[in-house]
Amino acid sequence: MALEITGTIETILPIETGTKRDGSGDWKKQQLIVTNYDGFEGKKQIFCFEVFGDQKVENLNKYNKEGQNVTVEFNISTNEHNGKYYTSLPAWKITTN
Fold first, then answer.
1. Considering the entire predicted model, what is its pTM?
2. How many domains does the chain have?
3. So what's the pLDDT on residue 1?
4. Domain range spanning residue 68?
């Protein structure tokens, strides 16, 4: 199920890199903070999205800047590791408004 949110890019965090578990190469990801206001109660909402892979990280930095109004299309992903659960919001499309 794909979801969508419209808001403002508050922060683009530094690029993170590492080596794949199987040693077959490196990985790259970057997170961005997008805020908007809940239309029902008017409260500020904060979302931390991530893009994963060389091309997506390159496109994030090439086409997006802090302060821009964007629409982010994303999925919700949860993984378990050693009895703990981690949820992420992988963005697969970011459109400037």
1. 0.87
2. 1
3. 61
4. 3-19+28-96
